[in-house]
Amino acid sequence: MIIEAMIDRFSDNNQAVILAEKTGKEFVVHQSKLPEGAKPGDYLQLKVSKEVLTEITFDKMKTEERKRQVSSAFERLKQRESKSMFRK
Fold first, then answer.
1. What was the pLDDT predicted at 80?
2. pTM of the predicted model as reported, rounded to 2 decimal places
3. Separation CA 22–CA 4 (nearest Å)
4. What is the pLDDT of residue 46?
5. 87 pLDDT exceeds 90?
6. Which stretch of DSSP H or E encloses residue 62?
7. What is the dihedral of CA 63, 74, 26, 37, to 10 degrees?
8. Model confidence over 50-76: pLDDT tens digits?
9. Domains of the chain with CATH codes
10. Bridge partners, residue 18, by sequence
11. CA–CA dist 75, 81 (Å, integer)
12. Which of 22, 28, 24, 25 lies closest to 10 in space, CA to CA?
């Protein structure tokens, strides 16, 4: 089974915490098992067999899409902040 997931964070002992939102699963793997250059916030495709993580690949398209969405939301927020309905 292929699962979409995101690197949530790096913890102590060089461990990566990977969250698969759709399945509600959390995987903890050594950072050396990640694709080269992977960092928190990056999206991955996980191949899982019988609850065991067997392969990890970087999902460049999903990572870039999410970055654009976050950037767009941030820009909308900045515009809204400058149009406060309260007097200073």
1. 73
2. 0.79
3. 8
4. 97
5. no
6. helix 60-81
7. 40
8. 988 999 999 999 999 988 998 888 888
9. 2-81 (2.40.50)
10. 7, 27
11. 10
12. 28
